[in-house]
Design goal:
Layout lengths: L1 H6 L4 H40 L4 H8 L5 H22 L3 H12 L5 H10 L1 H16 L2 H12 L7 E6 L6 E3 L12 E6 L5 H7 L5 H7 L11 H4 L2 H16 L6 E5 L8 H16 L3 E5 L3 H9 L3 H4 L4 E2 L2 H14 L2
Parallel strand pairs: 3-4, 4-5, 5-6
Antiparallel strand pairs: 1-2, 1-3
Helix pairs in contact: 6-7, 7-8
Protein name: STAS domain-containing protein
Main location: membrane
Pfam family, one: Sulfate_transp
Length: 334
């Protein structure tokens, strides 16, 4: 035993060298194993999301769950079922199991939204129906592909701030025409594409949540509009116009005009964005006006009851007519 103790210190350097070389050989192998593990995990997640059932949150919400205690109850129920009730399901026919699944899932189908899509936009309804049938009869990716193929018209619309060319009734993008001048107290915005789900997301991005929430406060400090849900890019333009008007001519922004000349179509996502935009501008005491909406756009605005909320003074044939009429109404006010 003593001899072994005397030999061990002499072998310490050899042991360190052996451990170092062992680490050098194992490190690349560990890296390869880790990379393979990550790739396998990614594939399993992708395959699982395309073939698994509805999420637990959707089922809980449909069952009326309100708090996270539902997760505890659900986990306990599953545990008891797996431990004690599985023999009861062993001899259950597949038809009965299928009926149970269909009964649980049927409540997750929002047929009222499908009816609303049919009334407002037949193209949206066609996309919804094709996606539903594709997922039901073929697979989830094929169903997504059907709806995506039908509605893939536009992705990023051309947008900008419009100004008046002096001596004319023409309004053009201030970044493209140096002669175009902004109209005091007005923010004139142009959208040069149909407003669909694909570009309504683009219109809802790039905003400063903190500064915007401070500007839409109503009454006391605790009453704040939930701008993080429906805040859109248009509000960022409005904030920039307010800063520009305050810095250049000292006037305050009072009216927002959206040029709808190039908007040839609008779907339910665009209608929802327009409704929420009007609501938020009213909270800021700003008037929202639509200029020259097309026939199909006007029809959908009417079918969704959004056009009635604008009234007679909220829709004009041209931008110049809107600016002249609203300016004269301001002058007539005491």
């Amino acid at each position: 035993m003593a001899d072994e103790l005397n030999v061990q210190p002499n072998n310490a350097g050899y042991a360190k060298t052996k451990a170092f070389w062992g680490y050098q050989q194992a490190a690349p192998l560990a890296s390869v194993i880790l990379s393979t593990l990550l790739v396998t995990l990614f594939r399993s997640k992708l395959h699982g999301h395309c073939n698994c059932s509805f999420s637990r949150s959707a089922v809980n919400a449909n069952a009326g769950a309100k708090t996270v205690v539902s997760n505890i109850i659900m986990a306990s129920t599953v545990l008891v079922t797996l431990l004690f009730l599985m023999p009861l399901f062993h001899y259950t026919p597949n038809l009965i199991l299928a009926a149970i699944i269909i009964t649980a899932v049927i409540g997750l189908i929002d047929y009222q939204s499908a009816i609303r899509l049919w009334k407002v936009d037949k193209l949206d309804f066609l996309a919804c129906l094709s996606s539903f049938l594709g997922v039901l009869m073929i697979s989830v990716p094929i169903g997504w592909g059907f709806s995506f193929k039908i509605l893939l018209h536009v992705t990023r619309p051309n947008t900008g701030v419009l100004g008046n060319i002096p001596g004319t009734q023409i309004y053009q993008n201030v970044n493209r025409y140096r002669e175009a001048k902004r109209v005091p107290s007005f923010a004139i915005l142009g959208i040069e594409a149909p407003i669909y789900f694909a570009n309504s997301t683009y219109l809802q991005e790039r905003y400063d949540v903190n500064s915007l929430m401070l500007k839409v406060q109503v009454g006391n400090a605790s009453q704040v509009v939930e701008t993080h849900v429906f805040c859109c890019r248009i509000l960022r333009w409005i904030r920039e116009e307010e800063d520009w008007l305050a810095a250049n001519n000292g006037s305050s922004l009072r009216c927002v005009i959206i040029d709808m000349t190039a908007v040839t179509g609008i779907d339910t996502s665009g209608l929802a964005m327009m409704k929420d935009l009007k609501r938020m501008l009213e909270k800021r005491s700003l008037q929202l006006v639509l200029a020259n909406p097309g026939g199909s756009v006007t029809e959908k605005l009417h079918q969704s009851n959004i056009l009635e909320s604008f009234g007679l003074e909220g829709v004009y044939l041209t931008i110049d007519e809107a600016v002249a009429d609203i300016s004269s109404s301001w002058k007539s006010q005491p």
